[in-house]
Design a protein that fits this description.
The complex is a heterodimer of chains A (226) and B (514). By secondary structure, chain A is α/β, with parallel strands linked by helices. Chain A has helices at residues 10-22, 33-42, 60-69, 85-93, 106-122, 155-166, 174-182, 192-204, and strands at residues 2-6, 26-30, 47-51, 76-80, 98-101, 129-132, 135-138, 143-146, 149-151, 172-173, 213-216, 220-223. In chain A, the strands form three sheets. In chain A, strands 2-1-3-4-5 form a five-stranded parallel beta sheet, sandwiched between helices. Chain A has a four-stranded antiparallel beta sheet with strand order 6-7-8-9, with helices on one face. Helices cover 53% and strands 16% of the residues of chain B. In chain B, the strands form three sheets. Chain B has a five-stranded antiparallel beta sheet with strand order 2-1-5-4-3. Chain B has a five-stranded mixed beta sheet with strand order 7-9-10-12-11. A two-stranded antiparallel sheet of chain B has the order 6-8. The chains are: A alpha/beta (226), B alpha+beta (514).
Chain lengths: 226, 514
């Protein structure tokens, strides 16, 4: 993926750029809003990672609003120290697709970057069925089968599985699950997500030979066929 | 007066043509005095005109009646009878105030007590008030002339010397009275002014002392509950809040100094130690990871603190909206049910079909999640944690339902380690952790956040000890009309909430609440 990183702090910029390159992406780092805007409109990126507070007269939101006004639909991930609910809403209203607050764990950022790139590809075709290896879910009848065998899931477990399947092959963090499945925007102190995932595993993985839901250390979970 | 004026510079008024005094107190008292004096002038003028006018009208009526009687005499018996009647009347007039004169066409006197016809009296259709000479004395008289047939003329009048005396007397006494009233008005104004000054002075002095840092000062209260006391009370209340906020800030900065410095120190030590002593990459990596974990803790504490501060500042009321609490609570219950089950804790939800609420959705989610977090964290295996919500039941000393608002209470009870009395009182302080809870993870900010959220919703957070365990109850008022009218028909569209009905009951409601 071709990713534009607009971030004025050199440590954060280099860290993000290095991590994304290691993950196999082509990164264009920029340290101010003016250059960022120039690159964003003149080149074609798959994703823009954008800091909000930038030097050079054009801050992140201005940049975002400008490219959205030109019908540029490149997914934008806002990366900001402004962590208020209001700031987050403001950022998403301006046209941002996701919002990560500083300080952040790189695994979280990477997982969201992957999720955003996937979203761009999937959106045009509404799916009624999702398949990963021998696991299949039907979104209309809300039924789950693995290896031809029917699995009964609670509604919430179904939504959890659906989310994991939609992001199959990607790391999904606990925060993403909490936001995507439960629509909660706070961090519970206890490991609530882990417990729900482990329940899902009991039903989806345990009776079968090969596990599909994998724990990614220090990051989250991933659903994939081995 | 100038000193009091300095506190209230009436900048706008000073440019006007009538330079109003700069002291608000003086302006008030001047206004008061002026109004008093003016109204007394009006009042006394009314009395004066009323009395004098009445006397005048009485004289005129008497003269008219006299004249009518006399003209009847003339019709009955002609000139001699009239002359006789006039003489009779003069004789019977004990007050000696009647004046009669009848003259023939040549002006010769026929009867009466005036020596000659007064030169000024020429017309018979108006009243004359003039000086007449009668029996060697000059008098003031009210006189009316009447034309008789044959060129004869009749003059009827009354001596109004007495009336003039009365008038002077009345004028004098009213003037005196007015002077006294004005004096009273002035002294009243001075009194009002000094009272005003005293009251402003005490407020100004106290606020000034507070502005200079003496936060222990309070407005003196008279205790009669008048407006002054109300103002003083409002100011005192404000001061109490300021003190509480400042204490909070002090407490937080102390807590930050301790609770943030500790993990930062730990992270720093680990990194430095690893840099100096790590023997291989594995060890180095492990130390760095531990340090990152510590820093993540610092971040989450920091974020929780910011959130509490932000909520306490009350800036997040913008997100308030009406919604039904029950689906929200059921969802959170669903989220935590798995955790509870994993720890062999029985999580029971006791929810009515619907609880209309007005507030911030995300915050209520967080508050309830924090309470459940705590309850599950401190519960032993096999215990029961209950999440209950109810609309209406007022508890002594808490917010009461009124015609315009309901009271919603959300309670989380557990059978865990509980808290002793001293700890209960401090439980919602930032960074407070009971001794018995030292070994469990957490920063001691969960309840502070809940407390801030409940306060933002205008409610109170109460903790009750149970045997064993703890009950935490959020009691919040909900405005009745608007939110209910616009309530979205959600999962439970029951028209009337039935607080007593529970979806899943293992014990009777409110058991164990004190």
């Amino acid at each position: 993926m071709h990713i534009l990183v607009v971030e004025d702090d050199p440590t954060v910029r280099n860290f993000v750029a290095k991590g994304l390159r290691e993950a196999g992406h082509l990164v264009e780092p920029v340290d101010n809003g003016k250059d960022g805007l120039f690159l964003a409109v003149s080149e074609n990126f798959d994703l823009i990672i954008l800091d909000r507070m930038l030097p050079g007269g054009i801050d992140g939101l201005r940049l975002l609003e400008t490219i959205r006004a030109q019908n540029n639909t490149t997914p934008v991930l806002l990366l900001s120290a402004l962590a208020d609910v209001d700031d987050r809403v403001q950022g998403l209203k301006a046209g941002g697709d996701d919002y990560v607050t500083k300080p952040f764990a790189f695994s979280e950022l990477l997982a969201r970057v992957e999720a955003l790139s996937r979203r761009g590809r999937n959106e045009n075709a509404p799916q009624t069925r999702l398949n990963v290896a021998d696991l299949e879910i039907d979104l209309l009848s809300r039924s789950v089968r693995r290896n031809g065998q029917r699995i009964d899931l609670q509604p919430r477990e179904f939504r959890l599985l659906e989310y994991l399947m939609r992001h199959a092959g990607q790391v999904v963090t606990r925060t993403m699950l909490l936001e995507g499945v439960w629509d909660y925007h706070f961090d519970p102190q206890t490991n609530v997500i882990d417990v729900h995932v482990s329940r899902l595993r009991q039903k989806v993985d345990k009776p079968f030979d090969s596990p599909l839901i994998h724990t990614i250390r220090n990051a989250g979970y991933m659903l994939r066929a081995d | 007066m100038a000193s009091a004026g300095q506190t209230f510079p009436g900048d706008g008024e000073r440019r006007r043509r009538f330079r109003l005094p700069r002291s608000a107190g003086l302006r008030f008292s001047l206004g008061y005095g002026l109004l008093f004096a003016l109204s007394s002038i009006l009042f006394m003028s009314f009395i004066w005109w009323g009395t004098i006018g009445f006397l005048e009208r009485q004289v005129e009526t008497a003269i008219n009646a006299d004249a009518r009687a006399l003209s009847q005499r003339w019709t009955e018996g002609g000139l001699p009878t009239l002359a006789l009647t006039i003489d009779d009347r003069l004789e019977q007039n004990l007050d000696d105030d009647a004046i009669y004169l009848m003259v023939d066409p040549t002006g010769h006197r026929l009867a009466g007590n005036l020596s000659e016809w007064p030169a000024q009296v020429v017309r018979s259709d108006r009243w004359y008030s003039l000086e007449v000479t009668r029996a060697g004395m000059r008098d003031t008289a009210q006189i009316h002339a009447f034309d008789l047939p044959g060129g004869f003329r009749l003059l009827v009048g009354r001596d109004i010397r007495a009336r003039a005396v009365l008038r002077r007397l009345l004028t004098d006494s009213l003037l005196w009275a007015w002077m006294m009233v004005t004096l009273l008005a002035i002294s009243g104004a001075a009194l009002v002014h000094s009272m005003f000054r005293r009251m402003i002075k005490s407020v100004a002095q106290t606020t000034q002392a507070i502005a200079h840092g003496d936060l222990s000062r309070r407005m003196p209260l008279v205790g009669n509950g008048d407006e002054l006391d109300q103002v003083a009370e409002a100011i005192n209340e404000m001061l109490d809040r300021i003190v509480r906020l400042m204490d909070g800030v002090r407490q937080v900065s102390n807590a930050i100094a301790h609770d943030l410095r500790t993990p930062i120190t730990r992270a720093r030590t680990q990194l430095e130690d690893a840099a100096l002593h790590a023997r291989d990459t594995g060890e180095l990596r492990a130390a760095v990871e531990r340090a990152v974990g510590d820093l993540d803790n610092v971040t989450s504490v920091f974020e929780a603190l910011l959130r509490i501060a932000q909520i306490e500042a009350g800036s997040r009321r913008s997100a308030f909206a009406p919604f039904d609490l029950v689906p929200l609570l059921a969802d959170i219950g669903d989220l935590y049910e798995a955790v509870a089950e994993e720890r062999q804790i029985h999580l029971v939800l006791r929810l009515p079909p619907s609880v209309p609420f007005y507030g911030d959705r995300a915050m209520m989610q967080q508050a309830v999640a924090n309470l459940l977090d705590n309850a599950i964290k401190f519960s032993p295996a096999g215990g029961t944690v209950t999440l209950a919500a109810a609309l209406g039941p007022a508890l002594p000393g808490l917010a009461m339902p009124t015609p315009t608002r309901d009271v919603v209470s959300i309670a989380v009870t557990d059978e865990g380690i509980g808290m002793n009395e001293a700890d209960l009182a401090r439980a919602s302080e930032r960074f407070f952790r009971a001794e018995a809870a030292r070994n469990t993870p957490g920063a001691g900010l969960g309840l502070s956040l809940v407390q801030a959220i409940v306060q933002l919703h205008g409610g109170t957070l109460r903790l009750y000890p149970r045997q064993p365990g703890l009950a935490v109850r959020m009691v919040m008022p909900v405005p009745r009309e608007a939110p209910r009218a616009s309530r979205l028909p959600r999962r439970n569209a029951a028209p009337t909430p039935a607080p007593s009905r529970v979806t899943e009951t293992s014990r009777s409601p409110h058991e164990g609440d004190t």
